[in-house]
Write a structure and sequence with these properties.
The protein is globular and about 70 Å long. The chain has helices spanning 12-21, 36-40, 43-59, 77-102, 160-163, 180-191, 211-223, 274-277, 313-327, 356-361, 377-381, 410-422, 427-431, 442-450; strands at 2-6, 25-30, 105-108, 110-115, 118-122, 128-132, 135-138, 142-144, 157-158, 172-176, 195-200, 227-230, 234-240, 243-248, 253-256, 258-261, 265-267, 300-302, 341-343, 348-353, 366-372, 388-394, 400-407. It is α/β, with parallel strands linked by helices and 461 residues long. The chain has three domains: 2-144 and 266-327, FAD/NAD(P)-binding domain; 157-263, 3-Layer(bba) Sandwich (FAD/NAD(P)-binding domain); 347-450, Enolase-like, domain 1.
Length: 461
């Protein structure tokens, strides 16, 4: 079985490795570098930079931990970027080593479907080569959406891709959009001393999250002196000698050194030959697939960002495994009911399942339990007491239908709740499991106990 994957991001490269494990001859075609956006411009480089910002923050507060530092502490951007680049290079090398280990063929170049079982690859030297395949998996991903009002120049008007390669921390920065990407960059740049202003057209930051999570994050923005202007839009932008002038819908004018646009992503579904084959797309350009990751054309699959939905690397990887298995003759379907998400703001956010308002909109009688991290000894020990755990259950059945965490290591803690939802567990199942002490995971247990007013570390109401 010859399986060719168009795109080497977290969906594509995982699909190739899974196909190889199942005995197929796998080929990956990628015009940039293995790992895609996640490894080269998104998940890994941003988290590397955020890690540096967190260490810098802690270094400025060493005295809180009883450590005396004689002399000042300051960020060294070239070294920060060097560390980030080294981490990315190591991960890229690792994927290439996995390809070699499993016999995956890697072709560098831009691929285009020229038939239901054939892809033409234009290599960097201009030469072309055709690859025949029994099955094709499209994993071309997404890119920062370009908006005419904000023409990216890589210097003063930045995309998220530009931001991870910044050569300086600007004195002031306007971030357009307070969603996941915008909020992460706001915390990152603010952590290095940039004066950050955010403009969001919606009523709250990270609008996809639970209302209480948004409220807590907005409070933390204020503590960090990040200005958040909600329910506003930018109607005009002008580049002048003293900076970028942004004119808001309320008549206000903001002048900043740079502007970072984080208002969405566009699907890489054009220019790859799918129109000629009659592969169906949605209204936004996403490739339409079923639960088996099949397009409407036989033996052609699509996975990851290019299919729309939640644009998450781990979702793409899961879909890659499903598509590869089906391409090899198996019968598997993707389960999208339990997909955790993580936002690497300060503090972190982790969520899975239904938000409280979503559960109510579905007619579910809701019961919630909460616990503040400040009630944990471990949180005090590490000096991170901000945030809480919120568990949402079906009041009639007791089953956990959603969990939302904002606080230290929220991105790690959320997986206990994800497993509980997948296994249809009740809040009492989590509460009844003994959790190690002292750990941050105790907050999940305490929040579960709070569903029935049984949290022993919560003040009596």
């Amino acid at each position: 079985m010859r399986i060719t994957i168009l795109g080497g991001g977290p969906g594509g490269y995982v699909a190739a490795l899974k196909a190889a494990q199942l005995g197929a001859k796998a080929t990956v075609i990628e015009q940039d570098e293995v790992g895609g956006t996640c490894l080269n411009w998104g998940c890994i480089p941003t988290k590397s930079l955020i890690a540096s910002a967190e260490v810098f923050h802690k270094a400025k507060h060493l005295s809180d931990f009883g450590i005396d530092l004689h002399g000042s502490v300051s960020p060294n951007l070239p070294k920060i970027m060097g560390r980030k680049n080294a981490i990315v290079a190591t991960q890229v090398k690792g994927i290439r080593a996995l390809f070699k280990s499993w016999g995956v063929v890697f072709m560098e170049g831009r691929g285009r479907l020229v038939g239901p079982k054939e892809i033409e690859v234009e290599k960097k030297d201009g030469s072309k080569e055709r690859v025949e395949a029994d099955r094709i998996i499209i994993a071309t991903g997404s890119r920062p959406a370009e908006i005419p009002l904000f023409p990216f120049d890589g210097m003063r008007v930045l995309s998220s891709n530009d931001a991870v390669h910044t050569k300086e921390f600007p004195k002031s920065l306007l971030i357009v959009g307070a969603g996941v990407i915008g909020s992460e960059f706001a915390c990152l740049f603010s952590g290095f001393g940039t004066e950050v202003t955010m403009v969001e057209i919606l009523p709250r930051a990270v609008s996809t999250e639970d209302f209480e999570i948004s409220e807590q994050l907005e409070r933390e923005f204020k503590k960090s002196r990040i200005k958040l202007l909600k329910e506003m839009s930018i109607i005009k932008v002008e580049a002048k000698a003293d900076g970028i002038h942004s004119y808001l819908s309320n008549g206000r004018e903001i002048v900043t050194e740079k502007v970072l646009v984080s208002t969405g992503r566009a699907f890489n579904s054009e220019g790859i030959g799918i129109e000629a084959l009659g592969i169906e797309k949605g209204t936004r350009g996403e490739i339409l697939v079923n639960e088996r990751m099949e397009t409407n054309r036989p033996h052609i699959y699509a996975i990851g960002d290019v299919t729309g939905g939640m644009l998450l690397a781990h979702k793409a990887s899961a879909e890659g495994k499903i598509a590869a298995a089906n391409a090899c003759g198996m019968e598997t379907k993707i389960d999208r009911s339990v997909i955790p998400s993580a936002i690497f703001t300060s503090p972190e956010i982790g969520s899975v399942g239904l938000r409280e308002h979503q559960a109510q909109e579905k007619g579910i009688k809701v019961k919630t339990g909460r616990f503040l991290f400040r009630g944990l000894g471990k949180a005090h020990a590490i000096g991170e007491i901000t945030g809480f755990v919120k568990i949402v259950t079906d009041a009639d059945t007791g089953r956990v239908v959603g969990t939302h965490i904002i606080g230290p290591h929220a991105s790690d803690l959320i997986h206990e709740a994800a497993l509980a939802i997948r296994c249809r567990l009740k809040g009492e199942d989590i509460a009844g499991m003994i959790h190690a002490h002292p750990t941050l995971a105790e907050a999940v247990m305490e929040a579960s106990e709070d569903l029935h007013g049984a949290s022993v570390h919560t003040l009596r109401k």
